Amino acid sequence: MSLVLGAIADDFTGATDLANNLVRAGMRTLQVIGIPGPDLALENIDAVVVAFKSRSCPVRESVDSSLAALAWLQARGARQIYFKYCSTFDSTDAGNIGPVSDALLERLEAKQTVMVPAFPANNRTVYQGHLFVGDRLLNDSGMEHHPLNPMRDADLVRTLSRQTDHDVGLLARSDLAAGVKASSDRLEALAAQGVRHVICDTLDETDLATLAAVVVELPLVTGGSGLGQALPAEYRRLGWLDTVDQAGRLEPASGGALVLSGSCSQATLLQIKHFLNRYEGFALDPLKLAKDDTQIGQALNFARQRMGGKAPVLIYASATPDMVRQAQDQLGVAVAGERVERALAVIASELVAEGAGRLLIAGGETSGAVVSALGICELRIGDQIDPGVPWTQTRLNGRQAPLSLALKSGNFGGVDFFSRAFEVLL
């Protein structure tokens, strides 16, 4: 069978999040970093997720890379295109969700798409067009403090309307409760009114299943990873997808266990606190990193002395909002982030070259920096650790054993994630 789904993701952890749900639903999935060469083999692959580090880059750059990925996926016969962004709708008023969605729609010559950021399994839901994280509105969830994309408006119709010149509408929970036909009729009525982007209420898995049935034949769907767990059943109903066993099988893992964290989300800060109650960790300081590479050398020595032990080694630059603001005030937002990303990328490269074989990376920007530094181009998706976070594997030149990686969005994972993740890896 030809490629069923081609996805374009705006960060590396978000790509892995979607790929995880596709694998769990029985799709053999490959994640690629950037646009692959023309000779990439796709035998026995049902879905390809093209990952970029484009969530916070200039709009034009994000649009251009997304359109290039679309062309690559279309050339390989992808039946449906999926634009993947964060389940907390991370974007500024300038973009990038609206402009990228508009560009993809125009290139596909499609009139309408849906916006389904919800991921109920990870407590991201949408009601009356408002995004909730657990029982808190998005703007009161901690995301209002995000260092790059602070989310201060939970009304997604209003938020997206600031990013596009086209009309934005709502597919309400009452429409979904009325079933597939009623929801389809509502989308058609909105399209007749010229509504190009439709925010979709989503409270639970039943809503996702209804949405999947409604949108399965749209040229383009957009959202978080939740919709990805529901679409494969519809692909099978249409005869597009075969049933396979163990879509997420990986090779046995080996090598030292390393956690690198640059995320400053509340979830990651709690995970670090839990880890440090049991084990040691090395904290990086952006202000010191801006002066010279002394701290990088200290972190490497810290890891080398402990890499042979049973516990994973933690090196982190995660900090509270006040500490982040202090660094940003002195260095500037861009420079502060770049210093941390560079340091963690250098540390990862050195330690992988010395035998680290199991890496857990926390934070989308951090994951992008580390994966790029390691020269990783492809990731085979394995089994889930927590909702939205699977183990993946790749092979590097000069390395006999596979390298296992978990790329964790800052907001994902239980409080004990940093230690438990390695316990579930075979």
Automatic annotation (TrEMBL):
Matching Gene3D superfamilies, A to Z?
A: Four-carbon acid sugar kinase, nucleotide binding domain (3.40.980.20), Putative sugar-binding, N-terminal domain (3.40.50.10840)
**Which terms are listed as keywords in the entry?**
ATP-binding, Carbohydrate metabolism, Kinase, Nucleotide-binding, Transferase
The Four-carbon acid sugar kinase N-terminal domain, residue ranges: 5-231
Any one Gene Ontology molecular-function term assigned to this protein's record: ATP binding
- Enzyme class, spelled out: transferase
- Per the record, what are the reactions this protein catalyses? 3-dehydro-L-erythronate + ATP = 3-dehydro-4-O-phospho-L-erythronate + ADP + H(+); 3-dehydro-D-erythronate + ATP = 3-dehydro-4-O-phospho-D-erythronate + ADP + H(+)
Domain Four-carbon acid sugar kinase nucleotide binding residues, every copy: 258-418
Stated EC number for the protein is 2.7.1.217
Keyword field contains Membrane: no
Residues spanning the membrane = none
State whether keyword Transferase applies. yes
* NCBIfam families attached to this UniProt entry: OxoTetrKin (NF043035)
The role this protein plays is: Catalyzes the ATP-dependent phosphorylation of 3-oxo-tetronate to 3-oxo-tetronate 4-phosphate.
Q: Which family does it belong to?
A: Belongs to the four-carbon acid sugar kinase family.
| The name this protein goes by in its record | 3-oxo-tetronate kinase
Identify the species of origin.
Answer: marine sediment metagenome
